[in-house]
Amino acid sequence: MYSVAGSDTTSTALTVIIWHLLANPKTMQKLTAEICENFNSAEAINYQALRALPYLHAVIEEERWLPNSSIKCDKAAFSPFSYGPRSCLGRNMAYMEMSLTLALLVFRLKLSFANHDNEIQAGFDVEDAFVAIKPSVPVTVKKVTA
Ligand code: HEM
To answer: Which residue ranges run through the membrane (predicted)?
Structure first.
């Protein structure tokens, strides 16, 4: 149970985030720019510094929470880790894993859909079956050259 709570949730969140970054190249560019402006090597990337980056935070939390977002929502209704004594024990770890993975990913690699139009047309749905069954996403990966 602990391994499902700790890995399926985070890997699903990361898969969905990466799909939407690939589907929205401007968002990917903004995130990449924020990471590359703040770190000059992959080794320098650390969670303490990542916590101060607003765009990375918005990518993880959904953009709609940026102060200048045109979508007005009540943040109090947003509770992906639940509330109260049985809320998620791994919340901080999940943010750390997601922040470090995304930052290192965009710093080191250039990702794109192998077939952009097909992906956009098909969309991305996660099927809930106790653990999430995710569709496969063919992606082209190139190493970033300085
Ligand atoms: C994006 C990532 C994650 C999300 C969205 C998430 C979400 C949640 C939610 C909504 C609950 C409450 C479930 C309920 O009320 O039945 C929960 C519980 C829990 N989560 Fe997470 N979680 C995430 C990552 C993690 C990680 C990384 C760990 C551990 C390393 C973890 C460990 C747990 C545990 C042990 C519980 C049960 C707490 C209890 O019942 O006292 N979670 N999580």
So the answer is: none
